[in-house]
Amino acid sequence: MTKLQLAVVGAGHLGRIHARLASVLDEIQLVGVVDPVPANRDQVAAETGVPAFESIHELFGLANAAVVATPTTTHTDVAKQLMQGGLHLLIEKPLTPTVAEADQLVTLAKRQQLTLQVGHVERFNPALTSVVGKLDDPKFIEARRCSGYTFRSTDIGVVLDLMIHDIDVVLSLVQSPVTRVEALGISVLGDHEDVVNARLHFASGCVANLTASRVSYTPQRTMQVVTPTSAATVDFAARRSTLIEPGLEVLSREFDTSSLDETQKTHLREHLFDDLLIRRELPALDTNAIEQELLDFAAAIRTGTNPQVTGHAGREAVAVAEQVLQQVAAHQWDGAHSKRQGPFALPMTPAAIGLENDDWATDDTVIIRRKAG
């Protein structure tokens, strides 16, 4: 089997992980790492034993594929140059900051006949893969993704940084068009939104409630999914899932609580999830999600088939994220005609925290400080 000649572009946190894993996979030969910062690229090169380069143009003729792990705002420019040079790409999430840019990359990959995969790594999380076959036709989804402030991905807000993971997973499960988006959020530390809640409505009737925060003191990466025949809790951080499947008596609405005597009620209070709502922990494979993602990328290139997370899927996630950001920017905190609108209107006004008027733009209905996203 011919190995994939892979380079990693971007030697930050995720780039280092990709390089380290790729360097020991039988299906891949890591041929180089690119980063404009000498210390970053030299460190990864030393760890993996491959050459370090300053420019992506030095990869042409050396690599036939690359992982793009640069800041999100550079994805479009970097990816265009690499695809024009004939390289297949795995681009870390989000694919791009905007739908318009995502469309450019998807179109270019198709024209160049190149594999374009997006790094929505939770699709490969064993907690999800162990239960996904039981989640047909979801009707309600609740997701929470919270972390502390890492000082990474500060070029984007929490929607494109964290919530995009859950948007992608939800879209992959529901398989139905989004018909309405409601959202609100606030900026706490920087120039982008840091806490957001969004509610997605789908044509299938499913409703998904998503919460993301990158200023939380309690880390959490969980999702609950309710279908007509089951309910599941997926813990992405712990890499485990729990499935509840009601018995036929419950599903057929034949169970009658009024017919139970006290002995039966006492028994069911202790054994509800043994007798009626059958609960079980699902075994999860001890796999590394990023490693599985890299193997999927290599297999897609080798076989000419689609990767699990295509460029189009990445584009769809960005499209929903864009709608969420639009709603966050439009949210009026005090009702109609409110002057406090958008993620920068709370918790304080400019004067309350000592900012000069030049730092803010105001009109009759809006207080704006930079752009959400």
What does this protein look like?
The protein is α/β, with parallel strands linked by helices and 373 residues long. It has 2 domains: 4-120 and 288-320, Rossmann fold, CATH 3.40.50; 124-282, Dihydrodipicolinate Reductase, domain 2 (2-Layer Sandwich), CATH 3.30.360.10. Helix content is 32%, strand content 24%. The chain has 10 helices and 16 strands. The chain has helices at 13-22, 38-48, 75-84, 99-112, 126-129, 158-174, 248-251, 262-275, 289-303, 311-330, and strands at 4-9, 28-34, 52-53, 65-68, 88-92, 116-119, 140-146, 178-186, 195-202, 207-213, 220-226, 231-235, 240-246, 277-282, 361-362, 367-368. The strands form 3 sheets. It has an 8-stranded mixed sheet with strand order 8-9-10-7-11-12-13-14. A hairpin with a 4-residue loop joins strand 12 (231-235) and strand 13. Helix 3 packs parallel to helix 4, helix 4 runs antiparallel to helix 10 (311-330) and helix 6 (158-174) crosses helix 10 (311-330). The chain is globular and about 75 Å long. The two termini are 43 Å apart.
* Estimated share of beta-strand residues: 15-25%
Gyration radius (Cα, Å) is: 23 Å
Span between N and C termini?
A: 43 Å
**What CATH architecture of the largest domain do you see?**
2-Layer Sandwich
Give me the side-by-side strand order of the main sheet.
8-9-10-7-11-12-13-14
Structural class: alpha/beta
- The CATH topology of the largest domain turns out to be Dihydrodipicolinate Reductase, domain 2
Oligomer: single chain
Q: Shape, please?
A: globular
Query: What does the average pLDDT come to?
Result: 91
How many helix segments?
10
Instruction: Identify the CATH class of the largest domain.
Output: Alpha Beta
Listing every helix as H and every strand as E from the N terminus to the C terminus, the arrangement reads EHEHEEHEHEHEHEEEEEEHHEHHEE
